[in-house]
Amino acid sequence: MEAIARAHTNIALIKYWGKRDSQLFLPMNSSLSITLDHFYTETKVQFSDQFEKDSLLLDGNQVTDNEIMKVTAFLNHVRNLAGTKTFAKVTSVNHVPTAAGFASSASGYAALAAAASKALQLDLTGTELSALARQGSGSASRSIFGGFVEWQKGEKTDGTDSFATQIIDEKAWDISVLSVVVEAGPKSVSSRDGMQRTVDTSPFYEGWLATLEEDLKRIKEAIKARDFTKLGEIAEANALKMHATMLGAKPPFFYWQSATLDVMQKVMELRQQGLEAYFTIDAGPNVKVLCEPMNEQMMKEKLAALPSVRDVIVCHPGPGIQYLSE
Ligand SMILES: O=C(O)C[C@@](O)(CF)CCOP(=O)(O)OP(=O)(O)O
User: CA-CA distance, 38 to 319, in Å (whole number)?
Assistant: First the structure.
């Protein structure tokens, strides 16, 4: 029994940053993202009684024990749904600029959820697949769908109401998302550890949470109205608020390098000059710059000209889960 699936990465405009239940990957708040067309993970899963344990080949390399433990824990969810104890061989390839550490847990666990459930002939709905992928990595719940996607936090303690839904598909509104790759510095705190430390110790965390319902409501209005300015302003402010929370953590931490600030300041300067763009940043030094398609080439040239920028890849809204054959 085997299957292959492809899932694309996503960039959050309203960030997921903190869990209310770390076993079930239940978030403190709802989040909203754009699935990207250029970056994806392709994963093949084979179940066989011949296998004595789960194995994972990632980009042609065997992985660490910790990584295989996480995959086995995740596959146990799928095995429980299928009522089997069979082990699996997982082969995964990240089609992302690896040099930039773009290896995305979102596309990785979304592709794994889809391929593993398909291989075991579980005919899951998009909602069920999103809730399953969430238990591998929270942001993976969003990569099940294409276009603009909302992961509703849910209220139930068992997480059955915490899954993503598509707001508009990838063809409904074309926005340019420039992935700006800066110098890869020392390994920073993982998003999983970073959000946990922030929730546990930052006095700014409550203030962050208090603004999110309004941010989400207003950005959905902006999407409905195709109002790029409103969408960009909310997304940029939301990212900055998220990064502010970690500065108050114990011990404090941050992801930005000087190159990150170079890009942020250039985007603000260009906006002042009339070239409208907004930035968002996740748990790393790289920056995603939002602009309208008519400005993407100019933006790409301006950003690529910064000495600390290594690469600029132009993305657009991309598709949800795809099943492939050999
Ligand atoms: O994507 C976002 O909403 C914002 C972030 O990227 C950070 F900026 C968080 C992603 O966290 P994830 O890797 O999904 O954590 P997990 O559930 O502990 O695996």
Answer: 10
